[in-house]
Amino acid sequence: MIFGRKNRKPITITDKKVVDWKYAVCGYCSTGCSIEVGLNAEGKPVASRGKGNAPVNQGKLCIKGIFEHELSGTAGRGTEPLMRNKIYDNFQASSWDAALDKTAAEFIRIQEKYGRDSIAVVSTGQLLTEEFYTLGKLVRGVIGTNNYDGNTTLCMASAVSGYKRSFGADGPPGCYDDFESTHCLMAFGSNLPEQHPIIYWRLKEALEKRKFPLIVVDPRVTMFAQFADIHLPITPGTDLVLLNALAHVILAEDLQDQAYIEAHCNGFEELKAIVAKYDPVTASRICGIDADMIKNVARIYAKAPSAMSIWTMGINQSTHGTDGVCGINNLNLITGNIGIPGGTSLSITGQCNAMGTREWSSCSGLPGYRMLEKQEHRDEVAKFWGVDADFFPAKRGLQQTDIFPAIESGEIKALWIVATNPLTSMPNQPRIKKALEKLEFMVVQDGYKDCETVNFAHVYLPGALWGEKEGVQTNTERRVNLVRKFVEPPGQAKPDHWVFSELAKRFERGRAMTFPETTSDIFDEMKMLSKGAKRNLDISGMSHDLIEAQRGIQWPMREGDETGSPRLYSDGVYPTPNGKANLLAMDYVEDNEVPSESYPFWLNSGRVVEHFHTRTKTGKIGNLNKFSPTPYMEMNPDSAREQGVKHQSYVRLVSKRGDAVVMVQLTQRVPHNMVFIPMHYHDCVNRLSLGLLDPYSRQPAFKQCAVRIEQIDQKEAGRLNVERRAY
């Protein structure tokens, strides 16, 4: 009997009447979980389950993956191309031919009038890798603009820049199996249980088999911090101070791996001179971590037989995010923890295929991590594609965060947005709106016509979503995995690679090139281009069928190999001019905006487990959206008492750039001088955020912002909340 009830309602499991299971890899975060989608007799997706023999997730799924099959029936999908002459006109239905003709004609007109780089293209981390490759081929080899980037600049650009500066090339060197081997794990600005639950499960499995120290560096008491052995509640933006201080202790106490440094590293003397200034006492006054604790953590990390560092947006989204990444790499290099089991510097990527766009989209260079700055790379790709090498620019153009200011200044007249939503995801949202209004022409290609950025488009192209097309994605540990098509896209929506290939036919240069029609043929072309004895990003030994059979394969996997390689740089050879990694000597620069008397609170932001990015997907799935359907703010109860703020009341947050209305949730998870808002909501946190950029990666400082709290009329706040909550 439970609370006086004699009869309990029995637990029942509904029979979804699945008649067939289709293999895929999850399309949300970068973990790369193998998933099976169950279809009923009518071919409708009705269930999702983890694939039991998959090396990544071993049958497990998080809440987003469990309900992922519901994506095919979500509201707001685009089912036909739409066009209009002015953004204040109503959209009119169009045919694909008319919409693509219009897009090509406008691109040609604008380039002839203003120059090749007057067009900008902003892509995503959500497409299939074959689609990224095709888009890069179209932009670099046909359209010819150099202003081409992906929304991964908002999340992973600092990791990319840090890897390039330290190791000579992008590409995470470690893997999930390192959790099984490590003797110490330090996490920076990463809340694994909510951001990447299955990676956290892998870590928990390892900890249950063999206990090792878990250290979490985060200004907020996240779920991950609560599970840690040591939580370092660092002052926001001071990660490099802590990292330099850890290196100071290691070198001062002779705990470094000197043999590894001498054999495999450049710049040791310069690093030693810089970190000498960051003794624990001096560092503690800046980063807020006790000097003795800094010494303790440094000793634990350096003395461990193997140690690994992971990080996510807490490091990357800063005006000195790249320096933070290089500081983490420094720590691992001086302790010899690169390329060994349990020893790695592993960035936990954001989107399901952010790695795919880094590898093959040609955003930052040319396919396969080739660089525009290298003549031999331009010649190699030009010959392969059948274009003139002089058509390629000699250096990278504007990144996403520089494209919008270039629209303001009149340098860019046309914009093509592919599967991303900058009107919600970019910092300083009011400024983005004004920039979009200045464009002569904008085309938005997205699976959802109610994506906020569509409101500023002249042409809307409906794209197919996950499961409505077939191809590969690459996860955090360089594992290439396959999404099989299991359902048709709605109406006239098309796979993105089809859109790119069809648009190419509208250009003279495009008609002279070959664009394969199927993703398997595109993958074969990528395989040929990936070959190279010294090239880490070699996928020539893979195929779609083999990838499915092995439930994902890590690159490099060269032709003739039976499986992929779990780690990079195990031989101590790096893709730098002399084959050695670079130790970077970096001084700390204070944040550009810190709390003050007028704006006394740090504003922190991040992901919650039930939502993804700007909610165009998860906001439509009831079993996900019901947990947090409306914007809210975590606030410390003591601060709330001082401000006269009550739990579950509305307040107005104000920064130097704008304001936002949120509901208050009182919690001890945030310190006295900080508030936290989930990043997912339109007209919310990015009305406040700072648009300043990291000088290397051009990634925005989403987490470097100061705000004040103001009272607001509760009825008016409730009305605004309902008005802004379309879903």
Write a concise keyword list for the protein shown above.
single chain, globular, metal-binding, Mopterin_OxRdtase, iron-sulfur
What does this molecule look like?
The strands form 6 sheets. The chain has a 7-stranded mixed beta sheet with strand order 5-4-16-15-14-6-7, with helices on both faces. Strands 21-25-22-24-23-26 form a 6-stranded mixed beta barrel. A 5-stranded parallel beta sheet has the order 10-9-8-12-13. The two termini are 40 Å apart. β9, α8 (223-227) and β10 (230-232) form a beta-alpha-beta unit. It has 27 helices and 26 strands. The model has no long low-confidence stretch (mean pLDDT 95). α9 (239-252) packs across α13. Helix content is 33%, strand content 16%. It is globular, with a radius of gyration of 25 Å. The longest helix has 19 residues, at 96-114. The chain is of the alpha/beta class and 727 residues long.
Q: Could you write a compact summary of the structure shown?
A:
Belongs to the prokaryotic molybdopterin-containing oxidoreductase family. NasA/NapA/NarB subfamily. By secondary structure, the chain is of the alpha/beta class. Helices cover 33% and strands 16% of the residues.
Count of helix runs:
27
Give the mean pLDDT. 95
Please report the total strand number as a whole number: 26
Gross geometry: globular
Structural class: alpha/beta
- Can you list the strand order of the major beta sheet? 5-4-16-15-14-6-7
Strand content: 15-25%
Q: Point out poorly predicted stretches.
A: none
What characterizes the major β-sheet? 7 strands, mixed
The portion of residues assigned to helices is: 25-40%
Please tell me how large the radius of gyration is.
25 Å
Task: Give the CA-CA distance, first to last residue.
Answer: 40 Å
